[in-house]
Fold this sequence. Notes:
Blueprint: H1 11-17, H2 25-39, H3 49-78, E1 82-86, E2 90-93, H4 96-102, H5 106-114, H6 120-124, E3 130-132, H7 136-150, E4 155-160, E5 168-172, E6 175-179, E7 191-202, E8 205-210, E9 216-221, E10 224-236, E11 243-253, H8 257-264, H9 268-280, H10 296-318, H11 327-330, E12 331-336, H12 342-354, H13 359-369, E13 370-373, E14 384-386, H14 387-393, H15 395-415, H16 420-426, E15 429-430, E16 436-438, H17 439-445, E17 449-452, H18 455-463, H19 467-473, E18 478-480, H20 487-493, H21 496-506, H22 528-553, E19 562-567, H23 576-592, H24 595-599, E20 604-609, H25 617-634, E21 643-648, H26 653-659, E22 665-668, H27 680-686, E23 690-694, H28 699-706, E24 712-714, H29 718-730, H30 737-748, H31 758-764, H32 773-792, H33 794-806, H34 813-825
Parallel strand pairs: 1-4, 1-12, 4-11, 12-13, 13-17, 17-18, 19-20, 19-22, 20-21, 22-23, 23-24
Antiparallel strand pairs: 2-3, 5-6, 7-10, 8-9, 10-11, 14-16, 15-16
The structure holds ligand T68.
Ligand T68 binds next to helix 7.
Amino acid sequence: AVEASIPEQLRATWRRLAASEFKEKEEFQKAVVRHVETTLARSMYNCDDAAAYAGTALALRDNLVIGWNKTQQNQTFQDPKRVYYLSLEFLMGRALDNAMLNTQVKDVAREGVSELGFRIEDIIDQEHDAALGNGGLGRLAACFLDGLATLNYPGWGYGLRYRYGIFKQEIIDGYQVEVPDYWLDFNPWEFPRHDVVVDIMFYGYVKKDTDENGRTINLWEGGEVVQAIAYDVPVPGYETRTTNNLRLWSSKPASGEFDFQKFNSGDYEGSIRDQQRAETISAVLYPNDNIDAGKELRLKQQYFWVAASLHDIIRRFKKSHRPWQEFPDQVAIQLNDTHPTLAIVELQRILVDVEHLAWDDAWGLVVRTFGYTNHTVLPEALEKWSVPLVQHLLPRHLQIIYDINLFFLQSVERKFPQDREMLSRVSIIEESQPQVLRMAYLAIIGSHKVNGVAELHSDLIKATIFKDFVDIYGPDKFTNVTNGITPRRWLHQANPKLSDLIASKIGGYDFLKNLSLLEGLRDFVDDKEFRREWNEIKLSNKIKLAKYIRDTTSISVNPHSLFDIQVKRIHEYKRQQMNIFGVIHRYLTLKDMTPAERKKQVPRASIFGGKAAPGYWMAKTVIRLINAVGEVVNKDRDIGDLLKVIFIEDYNVSKAELIVPASDISEHISTAGTEASGTSNMKFVLNGGLIIGTMDGANIEITREIGEENIFLLGNLAEDVEELRHRHRYGQVEMDPKLRRVCDEIEKGTFGDPTIYGSLMSALTTGCDYYLVSDDFSSYLATQDLVDEAFRDKDEWATKCINSVASMGFFSADRCINEYADMIWNIEPLNPLASSNVL
Ligand code: T68
């Protein structure tokens, strides 16, 4: 790298010429016009919204890159301990608006483009979401990057650069249809690093050899090689010069003679096939949320990404010539679920096989380096890899896993000499046909801290799936870090009017960096004018959503009706089926009423959104039912505005930014004990909506923070679930009579051919109602009645909302990141200006 540097005596010249960031409107406009005319080769006669978006994004990108380079140079000079967040998913959404707000140039940009004939909102709307994630886990990673940068932590994200993100959802005849999401057509936010390339090997065999000291060494060789090429994405913090990096790996064939020979010998197709096989690794995001499918290509993705990232991390560590003993003092690696667990094995392999450290010394470093976050207790989501598959793809890694397991089981045996059962229970290898690797166990054994993502969830993993490991390691290895969300995107960006109103009351925008300052809102709860403005903002957000619904579905929704929203991945445990059964019950109840009675009811719009995994039949059936109910209800003249049922197609991050600020009540009604945390619950409350929910995940802590009087709780508790399930399996359980009536109506054909819903109906009966819909249904309906009653009293409702927002400080991603930094990573913020003199 030294040879590539400009000689010391010429650097003054360079510094004089160095690029600088725009601050004023005119500089910004110049940059936009220059990019439209030169980068895009277009002109004022040929500049539509798309070109204006490109010009604006490129102008803004120039600014980002300057801060980004400085941050990275500063981090290199200071060489602090860094954290690396390994996640197979980063659900970033759009970048332009966020970057403008974080770098404080949105007003300049708005005026600037307006004088060029554009509206900033239209320009923002041109951007394609970066949708490299399924749901909560991927969006959490994106919120964490924002928090890390805003708090000036030296932290990078490492992920995969999928050519296709999560599929685009279309609804055709009420059914979900998946369409590929090709998002890379124009992506100004990524920088290919053609010089950052790592060779990654698969397959091959292990050869035993002896080193110069006569010790046995294992050599992994003879495999197939593909290349990982880095693409970097700048991540600007809010109101700071820190701009961190998200590094995404893309796969390509290793350049070599082989292709060339095939090509020259006339096998053109063959050479292309090899290329495609290599490129397939990073081609597509697996579209499952909370389901483990166990496919070979997925395992390839995992190793490819983990090996490239570790190689990169180690290369950076080696720059400072420290001894290996200091590795965990310089590097923290956080595993976002078990997807990157092979990193533990890969680091051990490099330390032992390549760097020739003694096993125990290496293992000590490994364990001090890694932390593991668990996101689920659902058995179908816990990752397991078939041993024969791993043997074939990663033969040396399997040997290392066997050794890790052996030493671990030996230590367990020493601690519990009597307990043979324990050994088979905690073994990384499950003795099934074929044998499988329990990745969560490997992640626990190879990490110094394991955390859940909300209090209940962290308690549950200690008491259930990881109980033995608590007995083995003691309770201190296990901890809780309750999830958080970034208030920059989820309040300031998504709901600018509310953010401005709050700022005007509590003394500026400091709350965006210190969310607990929202407490200041309490002083204004009784202020009539404030409440009026508050309500007006909610109404305008609802009008905006109603307009979107009308434009996209031609259904009119009365913006004064109660907006009841459930948007999240479709999953049986999240119980969208309970919601739609409740809607049917409401419909039947309204139909039973006289016109005079109906007049007294609170009008409601039930709004749904979310994707089903393409292979998840039951979830797709739920979507079909929601749409069928909408078909019937929305055109029923008896009903009118009293009930509308809407399914918003293709729910994603940018749609969430439209939907979340428009809610009166949102639904977080998972079977108790199944939703690890949930994060949209936090987003809705932060935007002045109330929630109806079960005692599950972060709902419990939200209740603690905002007060029981401000949340609509329902249903059974986690502690009772096991007993209830037992009764369904072994006893006589009558279906809730109101649910029975709903099912009868479905089976009568009111919502189309009832055979369509057969699987849904039998889940409640022969399926033993695993998610306890029947058990919670009457509580759910009763609680919905309370919601109606509360909504009638507009003053009381506003009081609840304002007091809730005032109490949401705890749920900032910043609080969450500081907890990880203190308890798990042991890292400190880095002053972004520290070495500005040398830059
Ligand atoms: C979610 N998990 C949890 N998983 O369901 C949610 N799974 O409660 C929690 O708030 C959130 O994580 C953040 O902690 C997921 O989103 C997945 O998307 C996923 C993806 C692949 C395989 C398994």
